[in-house]
Amino acid sequence: MQHMNKTMLAATLLAIASGANAQQYPTKPLRIIVMNTPGSGADIVTRLVAAKMSESLGQQVVVDNRAGASGNIGSEIAAHAAPDGYTLAMITSQQPNVVALFDKLPYDLVDDFAPISLLAAAPYFLIVNPAVAAASVKELIALAKSKPGSLSYGSAGSGSAPHLATEVFKSMTGINLLHVPYKGTTPALTDTMAGQIQLTVLVAPLVLPAVKAGKVRALGVTSSKRTALAPEIPTVAETVPGYEWSGWYGLVAPAKTPAAIIAQLNAQQNQAIKGAEFKERLAGVGAEPIGSTPQEYGAHIKAQLAKMKLAIKLAGVKVD
Question: In the chain, what are the domain boundaries?
Fold first, then answer.
């Protein structure tokens, strides 16, 4: 009995000690690595998150931009950082895309990171030139089927999100569209407005001003549910069940970061994104708050990886 009490006492002391460690965290500034340039959607979202974290943690939270090599530079630094809760990283929908494209990478998106929270998602819109004789997704599919290969769509380059999103749409509807790759999203939008190409799939901040000005027609939003950014526009999934394609942002830590720290950061993130100001600022980059448990975010990353691998296979994309 006495031995039992000693064992219980030891276990209790250990629990108190680990709890105390979590309570003391953080005792110094944190950094969040962003794989994108300053001013990008990921950078803006990260700075919003960092400001909220600084307030609630009582420590400075620094944003560390490590763009380049399709985000692989930043991902590698974050993966190999000390798992002590002082280095975090903002993972976006770009990372599973990159992992699916490259065979050998110096990090593993699933094994090298501990998910914290899925913070926000940014839907894309399927838009057409106003001269295209289709006022809905259903009519566009019918038009494409009546003239195989005669409609062309633009993307931000081979393997980009607009390219893969449209290829998945093509495969799910059995239509044939001609792919025209551009060096970025803006020229793809410009040529859709000019009628050089008939359609494209692009992010909300780029598309919505052109839709409001009547320069393009939005047929559908790519998220699984209608978006508060433009609630009048139906989802593509209302016509093509199961279709979904969104940009997203979520915070991770290096693998083996203590569970108590992950839980503390998760609770904080989910609290931070509830504010009206946060929601408003997110809308500026075409995103909406989500929030999740670490487990839900981990499952999301795995599902996105599988989806990207399939999309790349469908699109026949190869890295030189």
Answer: 2-122+246-315, 123-238
CA pair distance 235, 46, nearest whole angstrom = 27
Count of H helices and E strands in the chain?
A: 11, 10
Asked if residues 109 and 95 have their Cβ atoms less than 8 Å apart, the reply is yes
CB 184 within 8 A of CB 156: yes
CA dihedral 125→131→135→137, nearest 10 degrees, is -50
Backbone angles phi, psi at 161, to 5 degrees: -55, -45
Q: Under CATH, domain 123-238 is a member of which superfamily?
A: Periplasmic binding protein-like II (3.40.190.10)
Dist CA 182 CA 157 (whole Å): 5
Per CATH, 2-122+246-315 and 123-238 having the same topology is answered: yes
H or E stretch covering 248: strand 246-254
The highest-level CATH class for domain 2-122+246-315 is alpha beta
Closest CA to 160 of 178, 175, 180, 144: 180
In this predicted model, what pLDDT tens digit does every residue of 5-20 receive, in sequence order?
555 555 555 555 444 4
Closest CA to 18 of 252, 255, 259, 254: 259
For the stretch 231-281, pLDDT in tens is 999 999 999 999 999 999 999 999 999 999 999 999 999 998 998 989 999
- Whole-model pTM: value is 0.84
Structure-token pair, residue 290: 């989500």
